[in-house]
Specification:
Elements: H1 8-27, H2 43-54, E1 65-66, E2 70-71, H3 73-83, H4 92-95, E3 100-101, E4 112-116, E5 124-131, E6 134-137, E7 146-149, H5 153-158, E8 159-164
Antiparallel strand pairs: 1-2, 3-8, 4-5, 4-8, 5-6, 6-7
Helix pairs in contact: 2-3
């Protein structure tokens, strides 16, 4: 997809806004925090988010789970946790059942967020909660790993589970 000259400032502005949101989340400055985010977060959870953030801009690639080949959504979550020493399932439907369930008002950095994006068990999408009501994920064919706001109506309607692996 070609980016026209007049679109470049908008793209740069959007990327800067995403980076600032994630940076605020990682430093726990207190902006846009849920009640759970006001409690201490394990360093291991911060490392998971930092690892996820380090892959921003990597391309989506169906069936893959590496920075070199790209990521699908569950591959991105699997790789992010693996790098930090956690063994989790590779498939979204299994990621939706690991760890312990967490309510939306208790979500913390590093939690796995699960969305139902269609019908059936293969229609789940996963990402890593990054704070500030945002998550990092590998969205779809043609997309790149990015930070997304969970308050966007599309994501808000589709959120079905939050799972905590890091304690």
């Amino acid at each position: 997809m070609e980016t026209f000259a007049f679109q470049r400032p908008l793209v740069l502005l959007r990327n800067l806004a995403c980076a600032m949101t994630c940076a605020l989340s990682l430093t726990a400055c207190g902006f846009f925090q849920t009640s759970a985010e006001l409690e201490p977060v394990p360093d291991a959870a911060r490392k998971v988010v930092k690892t996820a953030y380090s892959q921003m801009g990597k391309r989506y690639s169906a069936g893959n789970a590496s920075p070199q080949k790209g990521f699908d959504c569950s591959g991105f979550v699997w790789w992010t946790y693996k790098v930090n020493g956690y063994k989790i399932p590779r498939i979204s439907s299994e990621q939706a059942r690991i760890g312990r369930p967490v309510s939306k008002d208790m979500v913390q950095l590093g939690d796995i967020v699960v969305f139902r994006t269609g019908q059936g068990p293969r229609s789940l999408h996963t990402g890593v909660y990054a704070g500030g009501n945002s998550f990092i994920h590998s969205p779809r064919k043609g997309g790149k790993v990015r930070l997304e706001n969970m308050d966007i109506p599309y994501w808000r309607k589709k959120l079905i589970a939050i799972r905590r692996v890091v304690r």
